[in-house]
Structures are given as structure tokens and as C-alpha cells.
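Morning!

This is the sequence you dropped in the shared folder:
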Amino acid sequence: MIKHSRQRECIKEFLANRYDHPTAETVYLNVRKEFPNISLGTVYRNLSLLTKLGEIRKLSTGVGPDRFDGNMSPHYHLLCTGCGNVLDLEIENIDHINTLANSGFDGEIEGHVTYFFGKCRNCLENKNFC
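The structure's back. C-alpha cells below.
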């Protein structure tokens, strides 16, 4: 059994109310407002534990630092090639690609991770900045 932690709950609550997929450093800077003595290491450990427990999702995009998502419902993400933001992408579920992938594979497909790349609205509107 895992001991209750007010700091961990604060991190989880912070992520639950965000849709911009913050980095660990952003989480740290915001959680410090309530817990001024919290260390970046404590934030990393709690993010890792919450990810392991399936309470948050870690997004390792291969571009920039890992980001964290408090929305555990199935959804996809857009990585903006202009500003680097990671945004929720509202599209129809495409889980049927598991079946497609499995048809050409001598094994069993268990899931997928899909990132879409493009420009966010802000970058399209501010072409000089992104």
C-alpha cells in the first residue's frame, strides 16, 4: 500500500485541471506555490509513481522534455512543429489500426501510441513567431 501524500495529490490535481501537457519543471514551479520546500526530485518521483499507478500519462514524444497528461481517457495529441506545444487532438477513435497492424504481424498487437505533427492555431496566425 502506498502512503498518502499531500504533495502527490497536489501534483495530480494540478494535472487534472490542465490541457497543455506541462513538463515536470512546469509542474514543479506551480506546485511550489503551495509547497515552497518541495524539490524538483520529489516532483519527478511523484510523477513517475503516478504514471506507474496509471493515474496520469507520461508523453515521451522524442521532441523536447517529457510532458504529463492528467486526462486518462483515450485521446490523441498534436505536436506543434512551430512552438513545441503538445495539444489534445479531438478526432474519432482510430483503435482499428491495432487490427490492421495485427493482420500483418506474427504476434499480438496490444496497443499503439500515435502523435500527429503540424502547426497549432497560434503558429498559423503568427507565422513570424513560430
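Headline: The chain has a mean pLDDT of 92.

More detail when I'm at my desk.
O.
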